[in-house]
Amino acid sequence: MISVQLTLTHLSGLKQDEREAFSALPISIGRAPASQVRLAANDTRASTRHAEIILEGKNLILKDLKSTNGTYIGGKRIDKIKLVNGDVVEFGIGGPKLRFEFVIEEVPITIKESPLISPVSPLISTPNPKAAPVAVKETSNPRITLVPPITGELAGSSEKPTPNYISKGVLGSVSSMLIEEREFPFRNRFKYILFGLGILLLIASVVLLVKQILIWTVPAGLIGLFLVIMGWSYSRINITAGSEGIHYQGILRSTVIRWDEVTELKAFRSRTRLLTDLVYVVRSRNNSTIVFSIEDYQDGLELASLIARRSRLAW
Predict the structure, then answer these.
(1) Structure pTM?
(2) From 2.30.29.30, 1.10.620.20, 3.40.50.620, 3.40.50.12650, which CATH number describes the 236-311 domain?
(3) CATH for the stretch 2-106
């Protein structure tokens, strides 16, 4: 059995200095919400499904998934390569960089015989002849095995042996990697209007240029281009809630607040109520804030409920 402990460190991009740990393969890398290693949506040099890591024998293999801008190690574009511990991988030229550190071990599979299961022969010398043997049926084997009853000090004791998996804390530990990231896209009311007006103005500027009405060509073209860029920018706004915290990606700024840093959740009614009704504010120790309205995001009510559960605070 091969055991893998993989640690990824974001060296650049919007998730710079963040670390992620994995012990199960394969792992997908990209900007898609379903990716195990999710790159920030604003890191547009990386593709939605950029690359993946698989295990071949005792080697970690990095495969490029036909990404638009390519995958690079040491400035060289690769399609498939065996990773070396400490490799720095760049996802698209000028895109986010990740350092890969890992340990691969071969763990022998051992099955310990339970001390409670014993052959039939000890029944002949049972210390307490009045006690009847107990029949235990194994789930993996229909054979019936007779087990002598427990006598002596253990017989009168109410304590039960603690299983190894409980004493080692396996049941009590929940890996943070099991918590899947959830993206809540911005539901913009004017995105398509901006796109439509921008495209119409760009077409109008071309017509004006053909007709040599130059005085209106440049203004119409610039305004149309501005409206198209604004529509595209609004389509990229989203809030992502993951195992580490909440990540807001806006047009001009990006804010990350870890769950253990959330100090206050506040909800109040908008003064104008023209576009939104309730406004929600998430505040951290260092006074970073994320402000949103549930009407502006897909599944916004679920987003507000998720933030309250993860931060263990109330709105």
Answers:
(1) 0.40
(2) 2.30.29.30
(3) 2.60.200.20
